[in-house]
């Protein structure tokens, strides 16, 4: 078994409490998941996020509707939470969501460790079945997060600041 790792960071120009409040609501996954995955939460809403919370949902993978159950293994608001797969398309799934205060807002880090099913065959087709699509999902998510958390006009550089930077 070979553990694969994805690591993505994104600066969100909002305070950590505001960012964490968005991500602690599983129903917001529908906003940041590509429509092609037909993501749907089955667990009745609202879901109380806490260690041990179970979340059932379905996603479409290669045309097949797949049921996925994750459990919140760690919950440390507003700094992190970890979800692990209990049932789903992977042999192993561990997703750490980390939020760090930064001068310009919040740095959100996704650290995903996973093992594909089917042993050697799963590893053989990894590039085509998981690595590219997972990267695409996280890229889509990053764009949607930028749309959801636009820079406030008060946060934007003033025209004078831009002129000064251009002169330097």
Could you please describe the fold and organization of this structure?
There is one protein chain. With 168 residues, the chain is an alpha+beta fold. The chain has a 7-stranded antiparallel sheet with strand order 1-7-6-5-4-3-2, covered by helices on one side. The longest helix has 23 residues, at 126-148. The termini are far apart. The chain is built from 5 helices and 7 strands.
Outline the fold blueprint:
Blueprint lengths: L3 E9 L3 H8 L5 H4 L7 E2 L12 E8 L2 E13 L3 E8 L4 E11 L2 E11 L3 H6 L1 H23 L10 H9 L1
Antiparallel strand pairs: 1-7, 2-3, 3-4, 4-5, 5-6, 6-7
Question: What key phrases describe this protein's structure?
Answer:
single chain, alpha+beta, Alpha-D-Glucose-1,6-Bisphosphate, Chain A, domain 4, 7-stranded antiparallel beta sheet, 30% helix, globular
Per DSSP E runs of 2 or more residues, the count of β-strands stands at: 7
> How many structural domains in the coordinates?
1
Largest sheet: 7 strands, antiparallel
* CATH level-4 homologous superfamily: START domain
Helix content: 25-40%
| Name given to the CATH architecture | 2-Layer Sandwich
Short description:
This protein is α+β, with helices and mostly antiparallel strands and 168 residues long.
